[in-house]
Amino acid sequence: MILNYLALAVPFFLFFIWLEYYIAKKQGKDYFKFNSSIANINVGIAERLIDLFAAGGFYFFYDYLHTHFAIFDIQPSILLWIALLLATDFLWYWYHRFGHEINLFWGFHVVHHTSEEFNYTAATRITIFQALVRTSFWSVLPVIGFPAEMITTILLVHGLYPFFTHTRLIGKLGILEYIIVTPSHHRVHHASNEQYLDKNYGDMFIIWDKLFGTFAEEKEEPTFGLTKQLGSYSFLWQHFHFLVEIAYAAKEQKGFWNKLKVIFGKPSEFDPEMRAKAEKRFLSVRKVKAHTTKFRKYVIVQIAFTVTALFLLLFFEHYIAFFLQTMIALFILVTLINCGAILEQRRWVFYLEFIRASLITITTFYYFPNPTLIGMSIVLLIVSLAYFSNLQKLYLRLIYGKRKILKSV
Ligand SMILES: [Zn+2]
Ligand SMILES: [Zn+2]
After folding, report:
1. Of 38, 250, 254, 350, whose CB count within 10 A is highest?
2. 167 Cβ contact partners less than 8 Å away, ≥ 6 residues apart
3. How close is the Cα of 202 to the center of ligand 2, in Å?
4. How far away, in angstroms, is 393 Cα from ligand 1 center?
């Protein structure tokens, strides 16, 4: 039986999230907020999910470059493994630094920094777009001559380590503070305090920051998140808001070069007015003001279901047909959008239920092309459209409880 043991990362990370939550609660520390933690985990689920389809591509890309362009013929040895680890971390430093210093790259990396909290759930805030940018930096490695197998093995370590630097429970680590990136260093990186901005880009080793003058020691208590918090838990908005802002800013500029200057300019010089413009266009829809936290139950059930489905999908990936993999992945993505929108108490979540029902129906037809089933589904669709507004009211009452409809900004 060929199982994908990398899927075990899902329960592994969940265990440590639970452990951190448990210890923080025991110590009376308020390090977790419901909305923020769920939004963080949502981003992580999407990344693992899309990685299922992209991981093979990354491997192929490294292997292609190695076969066609390798300068040296590198055979694995202890010294070369160490050299590769250092080279990977060095390239990461520059990928990460550009991620903070160039608008377009910040548009992808900002997702990791949207969390207002700093805990293990924030560590899961990684997107596939970040992975793409990172891969382009790491593509130097196969050209030097490191084989794809070596690179992908090192990237596993590199993917695992930074998870553990996202915690407030661990203080300073003595002598280790001089060599590796510790939770204290990474707290500085995630802070919006003036003296901590654009500091500590390292992933595993802190030496690069010390070498290139971007190191800051944690002295005063960090305030986490962006200098101007996003204030939205929407899955889609958290992923794409800065790219939309860049598009608005570029549109306002005249001439090709000026547009390019905006796209590749510095985030610290970016016009803050763009946020309001983008929000006005994309977030000004009616929303429900809930007086209870009833909707949390629905979100928790959905996340529990999603995480289980993700684990099973990854673990048994070699036994699940591509069609079914795609349908499950789409279902999970719609569920993540749904959960984010519910945290925002949006009314349009109701439409997402139609999309999820359609995905189930299509999958059922694919495997059981029975005319009676098709007929029944069409009747069901017509009836639900006829009673659309009643059903919508009922649905919103069910998930949000007693509510008042407000115009949101
Ligand atoms: Zn960063
Ligand atoms: Zn981080």
Report:
1. 38
2. 20, 118, 119, 120, 183
3. 10
4. 42
Tell me the CA–centroid distance for residue 202 and ligand 1, in Å. 9
Task: Look at residue 87 and tell me if it is in a domain.
Answer: yes
Token pair listed for 168:
């407030």
345-394 pLDDT, tens digit each: 788 888 999 899 999 999 998 998 888 888 888 898 889 888 888 888 88
Domain range for 181 is: 5-211
Domains in the chain, number:
2
Question: In this structure, what is the dihedral angle of CA atoms 205, 209, 211, 215, given to the nearest 10 degrees?
Answer: -130
CA dist 64 to 15, 83, 182, Å? 37, 21, 35
Q: What is the mean pLDDT of the chain?
A: 89
Are 24 and 154 contained in the same domain? Answer: yes
Dmax (CA) of the chain: 71
Distance (Å) from CA 113 to ligand 1 centroid:
6
Residues in the chain: 409
**Residue 117 CA: which ligand is closest?**
2
| Tokens of residue 210, six digits | 């010390």
How close is the Cα of 234 to the center of ligand 1, in Å?
A: 20
- Report the SS3 class of residue 382: helix
145 in Cβ contact with 71 (< 8 Å): yes
Q: For residue range 37-51, list pLDDT tens digits in order.
A: 998 999 999 988 888
